[in-house]
Amino acid sequence: VSQSRYANHYIGARLIELSKGGTKVAEDFEKSVAKIFEVEFGYGDVQWTGRRRRAGLGGFMDVFVVEVGRNLCGIIDTKSTNSYDLPHQDVTKAITTYIDTASELYGARGNLELKFVSYISHLIGGGATARAKDIYGAKGIPVALISAYGLNAMRDEYAYKGMATSITDMLSNKPVSLFV
User: Fold this and answer.
1) What is the model's pTM?
2) CB 129 within 8 A of CB 178
3) Which residues lie closer than 8 Å to 169 by C-beta, 6 or more apart?
4) CA nearest 84: which of 167, 13, 178?
5) What burial class does residue 134 get, using C-beta atoms within 10 Å of its C-beta: 0-12 exposed, 13-18 middle, 19+ buried?
6) Exposure of 55 in the CB half-sphere (CA atoms within 13 A)
């Protein structure tokens, strides 16, 4: 077994553990997801925004990613819990705060287009897809629901290595996408 393959397996197993570890490892999970989008998927600008505060009410999703070449971006909320079903309060936060305030993260890049909203957790619960459709219906922004296993599968796909364009297209090509 090559060293890099062993390291990738270890990182994948660690991601699985963090994805279900609860509040004590939630920040590590957020930062791991940010690192995957930056280093493995090749997003030119990735910000961990999980603890960033804003002047107005509410906050931001945990990770902000920018596909620099096409001026497209996405926001990602990580949930370190065994199964995540996108509860009503999270739908409300996405519709009333997160999607609208994403533009505050653009900085000097005022011309970005928000292409997707994503939720990443250990497992995606059965009701999440219907509630994700509510977000899409209210805001017109595609929603991607990704389990930690689905994220690891993406990481293993050669076609996605360093290909932010492919990831963005995949996460935004349908109103609601599910990667388990």
Assistant:
1) 0.92
2) yes
3) none
4) 178
5) middle
6) 2
Q: Which residue has 């000097």 as its token pair? A: 108
CB atoms closer than 10 angstroms to residue 142: 21
Note the pLDDT tens digit of each residue in 27-77.
999 999 999 999 999 999 999 998 877 776 778 999 999 999 999 999 999
Q: What is the pLDDT of residues 118-170, one digit of tens each?
A: 999 999 999 999 999 999 999 999 999 999 999 999 999 999 999 999 999 99
d(CA 29, CA 49): 13
Which tokens belong to 107?
């900085």
Name the region of 22 (left: φ>0; alpha: ψ -120 to 50; beta: rest). left
